[in-house]
Design brief:
Radius of gyration: 18 Å
Order of helices and strands: EHEEHHEEHEEHHE
CATH topology: Alpha-Beta Plaits
CATH class: Alpha Beta
Oligomer: single chain
Number of helices: 6
Number of strands: 8
Shape: globular
Helix content: 10-25%
């Protein structure tokens, strides 16, 4: 099986489907299957200022009493080394319509982040429990294996059936998501949180996809990410 082990494919901004909610309902705390995964690239030589701006924006979320948890990772392997990935998980469709102080969030983002980065993506993905082992939110481990799989058009059902058939053999936390909006489709994302690089390498047999999906895959990229606790918000302590 031959794959392209290049940097993660950039993800475009998603179009979110509007959902109705009852008057007065606190939709920001709604739990559900949806994740948002985004990518930023600091301008050359601007990493220090970007990280300082991102941490100021993180503090804005704290002051705004944001109920969402936000993960932040730096890409360690791949062509996009040192790029930044941030994500939030386990949201209902209704909660996506009600992020904390949307207008103020945008203004603070423009003030603290826009001068330092181009925006390369923001994807909307539902969690696929039938293919996975774990919950819809990854453990906050020091390392994360991030795999992106692009399929041939119309291959979704066959791909999911094949991956689902191997679910019982999974031994470690393995989380699959299907991209609904944000880039070229069909596309899937797999997250494998691990405490160390050696933990990822030692589980290489779990990394392999079933042979039955070989002809369905157009491109596959794999990267290892480092969790950045100082650039996270609302997470439990890092699990080792």
């Amino acid at each position: 099986m031959k794959y392209s082990w290049l940097g993660m494919v950039g993800i475009l901004l998603p179009l979110l489907r509007v959902a109705q909610t009852a008057p007065g309902q606190d939709t920001q705390t709604g739990r559900g299957p949806y994740a948002r995964i985004a990518i930023l690239r600091p301008h050359n030589g601007d990493t220090v200022d970007f990280e300082a701006g991102y941490m100021r924006h993180r503090d804005w979320h704290r002051q705004a009493k944001d109920n969402w948890a936000w993960f932040g990772w730096t890409i360690w392997t791949g062509e996009r080394q040192r790029w930044f990935v941030y994500a939030t998980f386990a949201h209902s469709a209704a909660s996506l319509d009600s992020p904390v102080a949307r207008g103020e969030d945008e203004r603070d983002t423009i003030w603290n982040l826009t001068p330092h980065v181009p925006y390369l993506g923001n994807a909307l993905c539902p969690y696929l429990p039938g293919l996975s082992r774990g919950t819809g939110e990854p453990s906050a481990t020091a390392k994360l294996e991030f795999t992106t799989v692009e399929l041939a058009p119309g291959a979704e059902k066959a791909f999911e059936a094949a991956v689902s058939s191997a679910q019982a053999r999974l031994e470690g936390e393995t989380l699959w998501y299907r991209m609904l909006a944000g880039g070229t489709a069909p596309r899937y994302v797999r997250l494998r949180p691990r405490p160390r690089v050696s933990s990822i390498l030692d589980a290489s047999s779990e990394q392999a996809l079933p042979d039955a999906v070989d002809h369905l895959i157009v491109k596959m990229t794999v990267e290892i990410l480092n969790l950045r606790p100082a650039m996270c918000y609302g997470l439990s302590p890092v699990r080792q």
